[in-house]
Every structure is written in structure tokens, then in C-alpha cells.
Amino acid sequence: MLSVCMCLITGCSSRRNQQSCFLRKPLVVISLLIIITMCLTVAEAAPRTEHRRRHHRRQADLAIRPKDGPNKDYKTATDTIFRRIKNNIRFYRDDLKYYLGFREVRGAKGNPKWLPKINFVAIHFHSFSNLRSRFLYLMPRLYKHAQEYRLLFEALLNVNISHSDDLFNQINKRREFLKSTINRIDLLLTDMNDTMVAVNQTIPHFNQESISNLAKLNKNVSSSEQRLNDIIAFRAYGNLQNTWKLELKCWKKRPGRKLKVCVNYEEQMARRRLNMKMPVKRRVNSFRNPNDD
Q: How many domains does the chain have?
């Protein structure tokens, strides 16, 4: 090999050397091609292996993720509603602190008859085949809940407070807080109307007269009774927003990547389901005719 290379570099003077030199030239070329091919194979092995790994990971992710297509529009619509609820929660907490002077509503317990009744356990454990069926099931219920609390806040806004000990400034702040909350609910309802129209879903009809529980709300109250009703309503609406936020967020997360808040929500719903009083099924005694044997 050394003699061949020297021959190629310095040249071959004799005829015999020239013949051997020309005979070995193809061998040198073939050897060089083999060496270059081996180097390129080693250099490309790692990128090809990494590309193959990325391809397998992508296939696994696609197997887990929901397929696009018709469901993509419903996912976009759900994300729009989720962002609106998330923003409403942030503004609601800020308004509580600004208008009423506290960040969270605590201290009042009770479940009066005029408060909207919502069964989130039935909503949470309802089975869905895809994003479309989930959206079509959840949106009418969220729409109804928003409308119910809008009517409730309007009723609280129009109550007559007798013998009020609150200052005029505090009464005015309460009124501004209720108006701000109603406006936020209107924004949510507007987004829901737009998203349902975008996916060709019929906007649910809401009959205000069907809400009979508001008739049980006393329209003439004292200052202490008004404060108690406000705290109960504000706390219930805050819980409503947080629960709907989790309901829209914590559905079919990828395995191994569940958020802690979603894990806690699942456990909370499971406990509520166990604590619910299930209706007792009537036992039907079957009569067997001995002549049938």
C-alpha cells in the first residue's frame, strides 16, 4: 500500500513499475471508497437512530391524543369557554376584595331553597365517546347554570333593605359588585352563543318562569338578612365557577401527566358520589308458575 501511494505521488519511472502502478490504481480507489463509506455510515448512524426514536415517540403520542378533524372545532370551542371562566374567576375575586373588602366568602353556612340546585356528580361521571358528545352535553348545563345565577344576582340587586345600618358608600359598592358580576356572566353567555353557533349547535332555550326557587327569596329583608343572603350566594357562585373550571380542564388527561389539582378533583367527586343517597330500588317479587316446568 505504501509503495502504491508513493508511486501515485512521485510517479513511476520504469515500465515495470508503471505497469504495477496502473494495476494497483483501481485497488487504491476501491479501498478509498470503502473507507469513505465506512466513515459516512458511522457518522449517519446516530442521526438515523435518533430520528427513528423521535418517530416512534410521535406515533405513541398520536395514539394517545384525540384525533383531529371534527373534534378539533369542539376542542377550540371548549378552550374558549374555559378561558372565559378562568378570567371571570380572577375578576370575581378581585371585585370581592375591592368592593366588599374580603378575598374569600366565609362564615355563612346554609343551603336555602332559593339557591340553584346543581348535581355536579351526575355531570362529572357522565360518559362521553368523544369531544363532540362532551361539548353537546356540557354546554346546555353550563348555559342553564349561568342563567340561573344571573337571575339570582338580579333578584339580590332589587331587594328592599329595611333599617339598613350600612353606610351609603357600602350599599353603593354592593350594587356595583352585583352589576359587575352580572356583566361577567353576560360575557360568558355571549361566548357560549358564539361557540355553539360556530359548531352548529342549537342554543338552548332558557325559560325564566321555570326557575321557581327564586320565588322563595324574600324581597324585603333586614340588613343582617341581606348580608347573610349575599355571602351564601357569593360563595355558591364562586364554587360554581371553580367546579366548572375543573370540569372543563380535567377530562382525559394523558396517562402519567395528571395535574395535582385534577387528581384532587377526581377524589373529591368520588367521595361525593359515595356520600350521595342513592334511591332505593323497589324489589319486584317474581312469581314462578310450577306448571311451566
A: 2
Same domain membership, residue 161 and residue 53: no
What is the extent of the structural domain holding 236? 69-275
Please list the pLDDT of the chain residue by residue as tens digits (293 residues): 445 444 444 445 554 555 555 456 667 677 777 877 776 565 554 555 555 665 555 554 444 444 455 678 899 999 999 999 999 999 999 988 888 776 566 656 678 889 998 999 999 998 888 889 999 999 999 999 999 999 999 999 999 887 666 667 788 888 999 999 999 999 999 999 999 999 999 888 887 766 778 888 888 888 888 888 998 999 999 999 999 999 999 876 545 567 888 889 989 999 988 887 655 444 443 334 434 44
Q: Are residues 81 and 27 in the same domain?
A: no
| DSSP character at residue 161 | E
- Judge whether 131 lies within some domain: yes
